[in-house]
């Protein structure tokens, strides 16, 4: 097996075995996602099919993306910062794997379960809409493409940059980053919410295409940023 | 086994210097480790041991000088890193994975072809077969250390770096680890770089030793040569009449070359320069001290180590 995939597999296995982390994420997603989505769906339940699909699309656009990214944030701390605090990263750095492959393996290993959570949220939103409506409600094709292509790219971007920062910086700096991420998350939710509610962002093939290209570009930039990572920077920032 | 190594360099450290926050941690150290030997790397906390190991492993960059393994820097040579086994203070194990899963992970990382057979072999070797499917988080410190060693040698490295392998282990587990190291060096022809505080351990198993203090190498030789060349001897003297101890002390204190006099249950012990042993015994006999037995000991590595540390202090 490719060593990058070996690292990815190990990360997924560790996530799957971390019950407290999974329970925490499920609770957060359930409470936050549930409160946001049920209210939004109920408000348009009396509308026609087009109104409900449009409401579902709007809801999915930001909820699936933001909660997927936030899952990545939760899970990445174990893969990157966790290995620094436990000291296992030193042994991993002594393996024949280049540093960038270690980073990439971890990004993939965290991205897959984070994306699985995002997909689960999408399925729950569709299920909730169908529970409320008396006809079959499905998201638009463009939204499906958005969930299948754009969401995983942005989740990977978020994990990639977080992992990079967690490897590069010390514990104190990472604590500050954590606070910034949480504030950023809350801000992103409210900005997205108002943009979508006021119709300033309307999901279209063009929007999906542009977002996808931007995401790929961002992923490339983050990937090239890992060149400034080196073993000494990681080891000298161990707790 | 001690000293049965050939002279091919596995590790070469030359004029290695490293500074942290303008404070020198290594001030130009030089040494080589030869194929098949167990090399002891000694020094107190803060002497630069861990920094040296980290530079050798490519985890830190030297300010100047070189630290090569198989003539390569491990920072840049991925292929050479595959020839090296490492057991650092942390065992490199994941608590939420089982012993088997931990070994499988590292085995796949190193691309071991016969991975399943090798894992079985390593678990048997470290007597952990029955704990194969147990989460490592539930292991005792000793069991984790044993599994850490299994992990470090899983890919059959040619050189093994061990940082305090017996720390926090009970005497029985310490002996087990020591036997394991001797086995690896002897039967598996592995070169072992052993960094430790345990002087007894070094004396028992190491072919050569380097003593580090303040970022400089203070002694570098075989354990035998260090003990032989220290120029100081311990002499234990058993007296027929213990009431003669004050008188013996009075004689000894006037004799040059004696640096220490300690009362024991059967008489006293002396630390003195090699050439003064016979004159001291003669003087004691002349003074009418009734000596029953004289035992001359070579100084232990611990004595030499403490002496070096005292000189530096």
Salient structural properties:
heterodimer, A: 239 residues, mainly alpha, 83% helix, 0% strand, elongated, B: 313 residues, alpha/beta, six-stranded mixed β-sheet, four-stranded antiparallel β-sheet, 29% strand
3D architecture notes:
- Chain A has 239 residues and is mainly α.
- Chain A has nine helices and no strands.
- Chain A has helices spanning 3-17, 19-43, 49-86, 88-93, 99-132, 141-168, 171-197, 205-225, 231-235.
- Chain B has 313 residues and is an alpha/beta fold.
- Chain B has helices spanning 49-56, 78-81, 99-109, 115-125, 141-153, 171-186, 199-205, 223-229, 245-253, 277-286, 301-312, and strands spanning 9-20, 23-34, 38-42, 64-69, 84-87, 159-163, 191-196, 208-213, 216-222, 232-239, 258-263, 267-273, 291-298.
- In chain B, the strands form three sheets. In chain B, strands 5-6-7-3-8-9 form a six-stranded mixed beta sheet, with helices on both faces. Chain B has a four-stranded antiparallel beta sheet with strand order 11-12-10-13. A three-stranded antiparallel beta sheet of chain B has the order 2-1-4, covered by helices on one side.
- In chain B, a hairpin with a 2-residue loop joins β8 (208-213) and β9.
- The A-B interface holds A 1, 3, 6-7, 10, 13-14, 17-18, 86-88, 90-98, 230-232, 235-236 and B 54, 57-61, 74-75, 78-79, 81-82, 84, 86, 88-97, 101, 105-106, 108-111, 151.
Q: How would the blueprint of this fold be written?
A:
The complex is a heterodimer of chains A (239) and B (313).
Chain A: H1 3-17, H2 19-43, H3 49-86, H4 88-93, H5 99-132, H6 141-168, H7 171-197, H8 205-225, H9 231-235
Chain B: E1 9-20, E2 23-34, E3 38-42, H1 49-56, E4 64-69, H2 78-81, E5 84-87, H3 99-109, H4 115-125, H5 141-153, E6 159-163, H6 171-186, E7 191-196, H7 199-205, E8 208-213, E9 216-222, H8 223-229, E10 232-239, H9 245-253, E11 258-263, E12 267-273, H10 277-286, E13 291-298, H11 301-312
Parallel strand pairs in B: 3-7, 3-8, 5-6, 6-7
Antiparallel strand pairs in B: 1-2, 1-4, 8-9, 10-12, 10-13, 11-12
Helix pairs in contact in B: 3-4, 4-5
